[in-house]
Design a protein that fits this description.
heterodimer, A: two-stranded antiparallel sheet, 13 helices, globular, B: five-stranded antiparallel β-sheet, 5 strands, 54% helix
Chain lengths: 273, 199
Amino acid sequence: MNLRILLVVIIGSTLIFQGCASKSTELNSSLSKQEVSTVNDPFEKVNRVVFSFNIIFDKIILRPIAVTYKAVVPGFVRNRVTYSLNNLSMPITAVNNLLQGELRKAGVSTSRFIINSTVGLLGFFDPASSMGLVTETEDFGQTLSVWGVSSGPYVVLPFLGPSNPRDFAGLLSTSLLDPMYQIGGGSAPSSLRTYRLGTGAVDFRSQNVEILDDLQNNSIDYYAAVRSFYSQGRESQAASNLEIDSSEQENDIFDDFEIDESYVGPDIEITYD
Amino acid sequence: MTKIRFHIYILLLFCSFNFTAHSSNFLEEENFVTSFADSAISILSNDTISDAERTSSFTELVMSSIDLNLISKFVLSKAWKNASDEQKENYLIAFKDYFVSSYANKLDQYTGEKVDVIGSQEAGKYVIVESNIIREGTDTLKINLKWRLLNKNNQIKIIDLNIEGISLVIAQREEFQSFLANNDYDLDKLIEKIVSVSD
């Protein structure tokens, strides 16, 4: 019961917060085209501190586990784990599909879960996709965005990484909405939760070992690079939920760019070594 | 068992209209992406040459397929207009080295076994070709790639690669803007940093 009250408070406060914010958004809508590339990050100083802490946590705990996992566990098994995590997220995806008014997608998510949990051997295989049952996972942060809640400022959470008030509210509410958390008695739901959280983190990290290493080593400003990746990724998910062309904002940025032919620059010789 | 099978048939029926429409309006651009991906894959899977040779021919392929000059100016945004000719020259040279060391050599990570072009559309002055790559060892784990191309004087060049909704060029641009904002908008400091990272 207390949890339900918490949910109402979270959603309510996000909506109120949003209500205040939306007025200024309307006023600024004419400016937004130019500001589209400017990141909303008023807490940058605090965020950078938390970000540095997360890097240390990643360096000494998460990354070593992910690297070991990748080295020890064969690719075939790792792909099964990815599939099983995807399968476990189908019930909450179906709930979010419904909350977004997407009945057909809710049908697909539910069918995926039923087929993959049975024919797909507890979700370790994905026969549903070969039957044409393909869908993206959905979280409550995305549902809030469909309901018109804007993301709010960029926030870096300890351990959890990049987020914003909308996605954080979504994250907190997920445990209340997810059918997988209500199924089974005793310790079944909590061990499932631990599996998803722990394995999910390792699965994600292990898929991105090289990419994140490269990003970190080659970045001019690693914090800004991660912020851009996160914000762009969430924006494009929000756009696809609203069935608008996800490249629209991006097109504006590229279109505003005047192709400057006035300065050709030095004749750069390219060496390939 | 028959009951389960029946349910599956019903579900299949329910979802049989779940097909995505493929539009191929820009065949030339689509063929460009296909041939770029094919060349990339054949270089990367060529076991008869050394690692160094593979890297250099891959870099050569990437550098001849992109419009580096345009990308360089785009990622610098407003700072480009305010730069002196000397700064522009230093920056272009530094960015080229940086690009080779941080992108061109690394793009092989995004080149799976198969790149499927699924459509194309106009976007202002550009054409966007959409494709999927299938994760190695699976049938269904896909990565979505959108290639932003510019056809200038009948020469097609890659301007940007968007991976699962994330534009690499925009990310680079935001990174440079952030660095400049935290360093008194001093372009020389940025150039210095770019040089130090690519070394």
